[in-house]
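ESCALATION

Customer reports they have been waiting on this structure for their group meeting. Please prioritize. Original submission:
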Amino acid sequence: MMSQASLALSGSVDPAATRIQTTENRVESRHQEQARMPWLAVAAAMLVFVVVFGLYRWYQQTHAFTVGLDYFEPEFKTYWMNLLWAQDAILILVGGSGMAWAWFSRERDLSQLSPQDELWRYYLVMCVLALGSFMVLLTLGVFAESDAAWHQITIRDTDFTPTHIGLQYFAIPAFGASLLVAFIWIHTRLPAFRERVSVPAALLAMGPLLMMPNIGFNEWGHAFFYAEELFAAPIHWGFLVLGWSAFALGGLILQCLSRMRELTELRT
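Update from on-call: job pushed to the front of the queue and completed.
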């Protein structure tokens, strides 16, 4: 069998065409690699989440009943109010930096984006949505239930409690900042969302922010005129209504799947 070099010397194969074909094969191979699910990045993000929230939950379990029962004690300010100010500063810094990065590093021209690269970005979106859903489930199952148990076995005397500092001033704002970064990223990296605003994505991103007024009303009401600590209490109804924004997740998934179907058809 004659080698490719021999065929090229004999004039039956064009060396320039061979180089072009080789380059195209390499580009196609690279694109196919990028279209794989980013499982490693998702696993790393999940590990960070479990470690951070696990340590936070351990901190609550260790100090909530020893130095967290009375807001007016100096120990409460040392162990809980300092934590509140520190985590708020970190959330503002990280969230603001993330939104600034998502916007200022955006691509100006998405017309040259290959179908493989676009499909990989949709894979990333779906993985992040799955990761976020698991995080919300774990947060509600750990932080929200611990908050309910806390109020049923202790006496609320202030508008700040250890469980609220973890749930309403850390977990919910963290999800809100993450969703805002994701909202900007989706609308600056995906051509299907570049020229329009996704209503499901907007509802999903605004959910935690819309809950903030009800958090303030809840804290003020419990501290001054409403001592009932049942989940079905009227003062908690605002959380349920605003929490319905999570239903918009289904609409966003359908929008993504519609475009992913088109991209997979292009590949075949």
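Sent to customer with the following note: Residues 54 and 210 are 27 Å apart (CA to CA).
Escalation resolved.
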